[in-house]
Amino acid sequence: xxxxxxxxxxxxxxxxxxxxxxxxxxxVNMYDTNKRVEVFFSELLYEDLIGRKLLDAGCGTGWxxxxxAERGARVVSMDLGPxxxxxxxxxxxxxxxxxxxxxxxxxxxxxxxVVCSEVIEHIPNQYRSLEEFYxxxxxxxxxILSTPNRLWYPALIFARIFRLRPYGGRENWSGFxxxxxxxxxxxxxxxxxxxxxxxxFVFSWTERILDLIHPHRKYIKSLMVNIxxxxxxxxxxx
Length: 238
Fold this sequence. Notes:
CATH superfamily: Vaccinia Virus protein VP39
CATH topology: Rossmann fold
Largest sheet: 7 strands, mixed
Order of helices and strands: HHHEHEHEEHEHHEHE
Oligomer: single chain
Low-confidence stretches: 3-8
């Protein structure tokens, strides 16, 4: 595991999930996690991944790294601290690196693919992370990204009031059009913009309803709870 560089000032909200790492898999909603993994690797990332360099940016406890490795990618699992990466090590034999999406510890044009699911809403400067993804991708490289849709931010407030979720990290959500505009400004070409989950409260009795809606989500993609994007580093812009 690559050692972390000294932190100048700890942002406690950014590091919430690092401190929560040992408990994360016991409380996470696996229906949601599995759905996002399937959308990423079955719908948005359909290329042959064998031998391709893939960065799981903000890897959490490693579920996306697991699927990428199963598809034959050369996976780098990156997150803010050793606690999360210790959980990744239990699941997959990837290269584990301590780093932030605000300052990715790799040089330009290094990766073929970057995947990043439900991460950029937990940092103070989303645009900076998009610039970093662009920088470390090779020309023509692929970014697969998901983040909560700001349209549904009131649901987060509701969940906090009634203590329906155990998370205490930063919540800096973007809108469907705003995120695409920022990606284009960074130099990305949007190939697919879609959504995940028609409504935010996932229980065992609602999973069937969500599954029935999922194939038809193109009609309401901007209204979905999570934004999901496939974008390409524009060769002309490189």
